[in-house]
Amino acid sequence: MVELMLTIAVAAVLIAVAAPSFTSLRFSQSLTTQANEMLWVINFVRSEAIRRNRPVTLCRSSSEASTACVTANGVWRYWIVLANGSVIRRGVIPEKNGLSQSSTLTADSLVIGADGLTRTNNTLVNNQYLEIIAPISAVEKNARRVVLGAGSRINIQKLSLQQ
């Protein structure tokens, strides 16, 4: 009986130590997954713009069924890809795990021209970003930025942000 109680006590200590690490791993994976999805979407928009030989837009929308971009900045929940005024792709940013997403793009919209260059408000994008944030206590580096650099270079940065 003593051995059983000792085994249970050791198991409880191991679980207490492992649980925070597992939660941190889960949040980190969710952040990475969402950042990679947005990177994929931007690359999709670029390939469609070049393939169609005309500008294609990625923007935040107000609902899952919306066919128009919102005209002001805010928290991203839904996004759409527009070509010739028609929606060619749409997506939902999951609210699971308390993740939120915002951007520094003008009116939360970017346009990629047939030349493959990214613009917002008719200006070439340089060091603007989409930012995905998890709660501070969830993981040490609680944010991922999909940074749109000069020449339409894209990279993902891991950051520690205070909310």
From TrEMBL:
Membrane topology type: Single-pass membrane protein
A cellular-component GO term for this protein: type II protein secretion system complex
Subcellular location(s) per record: Cell inner membrane
Keywords carried by this UniProt record: Cell inner membrane, Cell membrane, Membrane, Methylation, Transmembrane, Transmembrane helix
Residue stretches making up the General secretion pathway GspH domain: 34-125
SUPFAM superfamilies according to UniProt: Pili subunits
Family designation: Belongs to the GSP H family.
Name of this protein: Type II secretion system protein H
Record organism: Thiothrix fructosivorans
Organism ancestry: Bacteria, Pseudomonadati, Pseudomonadota, Gammaproteobacteria, Thiotrichales
